[in-house]
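Reviewers of the previous submission asked for a worked example of the structure-prediction workflow described in the proposal, so we include one complete record here. The input consisted solely of the amino acid sequence. No template or homolog information was supplied to the procedure at any stage.
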Amino acid sequence: MIECSIPHQPTYDGICIDGCLYYQAIVDRGSRVSAIICFDVRSEKFSFIKKALGAALWRESTLVDYKGRLDAEKHEWSRHVYVFPSSWGNVAGEAQLYYIGMSGNNEVLLSPRYPSSPFYVFYYSFERRTIRRVEIQNMDALKYGRIHTFLDHVEDVKLYTNV
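From that input alone, the workflow returned the following structure tokens.
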């Protein structure tokens, strides 16, 4: 059991960068004040990252591993505003998309939460300003419910037979 000097309650999943787990947490239940917590797996120590001046952490905020950069010791922030190109509407249409994560080649992965036909996931590169739309086939059986999309999932699809 590892104790932290400031009681807090994690609110959402975090990200792991270079052996450190970063996540958003409530540090004051009464006022619902949020902070970013860092847990270094190697040293088993907690630290807190100061918010950038004027920054707000919303319930829907998502921590993103963009090029593996996060310097919690210096508490330095940079601001980047990325705008989707005007052609985005031609590719995505009226689809309501949600952020899934960043791919290994720094593309944002977006996916619908509910079934549609055809079913697409979208990859967007801010650097190259390119959009890729990938159709996931054989989704017709899923007419109801919610879609859970995972990034970098690997499954062994070898066929095993009883001998």
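The two ends are 47 Å apart (CA to CA). We consider this example representative of the routine output the project will generate in years two and three.
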